[in-house]
Design brief:
- It is built from 4 helices and 5 strands.
- By secondary structure, it is α/β, with parallel strands linked by helices.
- α2 links the parallel β2 (22-27) and β3.
Length: 101
């Protein structure tokens, strides 16, 4: 499954109402560590059909960044049944991102 671009317009449908756990990647285009994480996030999305993977650009979606209290990026959040169950900040190996799930 492809990585979804999450915006305020599709957030409720794609994240809060998702039947599957959602891994959110909060990033910015100018962020070096975010760019380093991008291939691992793409891999996870391609390998795991039991989850939804979404990316949120904090520059374009400040309301979502504020809702999740994003202070540093990259930040990862796992949402299950509409609730945040885990978060992690900073560059992480793929295995640690999978461990959040």
């Amino acid at each position: 499954m492809a990585v979804l671009k999450i915006t305020t317009e599709n957030f409720e449908k794609e994240v809060l109402n998702s039947k599957k756990p959602v891994l959110l990647d909060f990033y910015a285009d100018w962020c070096g560590p975010c760019q380093m994480m991008a291939p691992a996030i793409e891999e996870i999305s391609g390998e795991r059909e039991d989850i939804v993977v979404g990316k949120i650009n904090v520059d374009n979606e400040p309301k979502l960044a504020q809702m999740f209290q994003v202070m540093s990026i990259p930040m990862f959040a796992v949402v299950k049944d509409g609730k945040v169950t885990n978060t992690s900040v900073g560059y992480r190996p793929k295995e640690e991102i999978l461990g959040l799930l």
